[in-house]
Amino acid sequence: MSFHHPERLESEAKILLNTLWEKRNSLSAKDRLAIPVQEMPSQNPEERISNFAEVALGYSETQAKLEALRCLQCKNKPCVIGCPVKIEIPSFIQAIIDGNLQKAADIIKENSLLPAVCGRVCPQEDQCQKPCTAAIALKDPNKAVSIGRLERFVADWGMKNGAKTPSVKKETGIKFAIIGSGPGGIVAAADLRREGHSVTMFEAFHKPGGVMIYGIPEFRLPKVIVEHEISTLIKMGVEVRTDFVVGRTRKLLDLINKDGYKAAFIATGAGLPKFMNIEGESLVGVFSSNEYLTRINLMKAYDREVSDTPLFLSKTIAVFGGGNVAMDTARSARRMGSTVHLFYRRTENEMPARKEEIENAKYEGIIFHTLQNAKRFIGDQYGKLKAIECLKYELGNPDSSGRPRPVEIKGSEFSFDTDAAIVAIGNECNPLISKTTPGLNANKWGNIIIDDSGKTSLDKIYAGGDIVLGSATVILAMGQGRTAAQSINNIL
Amino acid sequence: MNKIIENLQLSDETFRMKVHAPLIAEERKAGQFIILQVHEKGERIPLTIVDSDEKEGSITLIFQAIGKTTHLLANLGEGDSIAHLVGPLGNPTHIENFGKVICVGGGIGTAPLYPIAKSLKGAGNKIYSIIGARRKGLVILEKEMKEISEELIITTDDGSCGLKGLVTEPLRELSQKTPKPDLVIAIGPAIMMKACCEVTKEFNIPTLVSLNTIMIDGTGMCGGCRVNVGSEVKFVCVDGPEFDGHKVDFDNMIKRLAAYKKFEDDEHHRCHMKLGIK
Fold it and tell me: How many contacts, defined by CB atoms under 8 Å, are there between A and B?
């Protein structure tokens, strides 16, 4: 994305749309492919590095219509196959052209409960947009129909125009427990509540929303969107209990055996930061991305007037990792006034982050160091980080993930001066629930093991999302929340 | 939610607070802690649960007003509420009949020590206690500790109460007596726990320490509380808070505790100005 001035984009789109609008239903594939990809309007990078407001501003209606016209309405719908929750993508895109945004919103809502979130954070380029015929015809993956941006446009319209609270069937009087209030938990809670069951959603933090609240920054996912989704759940009658750590405040099985919950769905997320296990990682100034982002996002440490939570301020920050969390961390640190260096062992091509976030990071002045990684952290006499010994890498043969393996270049060590470093190389499963629940089986990485229905090794206990998948995505967590809710509803 | 039942000032800096928290009161065991947030925008701080009353649905906390949050807490009274309180967190202390146990509390550390000593006493252990403080006014839980101890030694830096000096001196003496102590539990400032561990290492007495590090979530998510224990990195919130004191890298822990010192000093100064605490 980088920087695209909203007014310029709008005026360009208007001119083009005018020439096409009359014949919108009779455009040839060639005409459609000739329409340029509609860029995402964004905040000016010079301004946005000093605020936490959302960077991507969202399509105007003109842009959305023009982008929708790029869709070839393929009969075989490769995009739907690429979507983990099988949203009827060509249909909702057609509804945009028809000017029926309510219909577009309803189509998306049939399969996705959190479209405003997914439109912003889904890795579309690896999912629905990857097999898009437009991209293939134009031989450029960046020229796929911007499905994610269109989804966001529709979802935002829905929020503004009073999206209906889903209806709830007659009360069944049966209670279910949802552990965790992230995307998986939200979807399972909504689905079970719609069937008329009593649902309690437990959250360890003081605010519900999981990773969407503590992890993903305001400038990428405004918290009002998450709060809106939670308030919909509350309006439906879901009880949200914050400050409640299942496994500690109450044992999981006590919820079933003592408190009358008929079944429970565990959606507690990955939430155990990986470290590099190298020398000096406990020095003052070395953080996990989880800690740094939680201080900023959940605790609002960036706002000194409001928050009591301290944040480590430094002139320079080195961030290690190439995923979305690494980008979020680097861009947050930039907004706190640091010069930010991002280190990644492979090249930009292999980075798991969304392309848009990589570009955003660059435009915001993050300095990329690819094919480099830390070997050890070096402290000063006070135990504070002062430098990092780094090592250079080259790409080798593909590993089990299919990406080229990073291979150390012997003797390539060099020193990099910095007063802070953040490790953003992923999360493992938080073992708290499996540790405190006898009989609940997990694999050697701590992922809870489930069957196709979402059930764990224990009766009445289901699980889904990152606690099962490891660090995955919002959309996959939602999919598993839905599957588990169906299975739970079926056991009755 | 989390209504304060009473807030008693024990000394010029120390407060004992009873809070309504029925679920925590029911589940908590000795050695566990809570995390609280005084108000919606407040920071999250861990405090050990000193006692609980299941019938009343209350837990008791003891804290020293040293930072912004504890100052705010000190200024709350009966009927006020704490915005957020979550727990019990951490692993309960492993309680069994070890035999002879020396319990050492330094300053506010006597607060988390007391419930552990009480449980150990309940399991049949003979308890010998040492509690230390900077001066007389900062000695806490003297009566309670006395009740469960075969012997209670008090030390103060200035000699205003008990022996003049540090807890390590009586600890050294007790360590040499027969029968040899089976276990030492030392809880207090990191520097004091470090000194205690140096003494007990000499006499080869297993020593447990309870660590109070910087935390945010308290469920293993942030890693802010990590400490080096032997060759491993452990999270105090989920792997602890108790560890084999002979393996803890206290020097690193002390430095990590001071990571936000500048920020805290500024806040401390502001608090004293605003709240009128000496």
Answer: 117
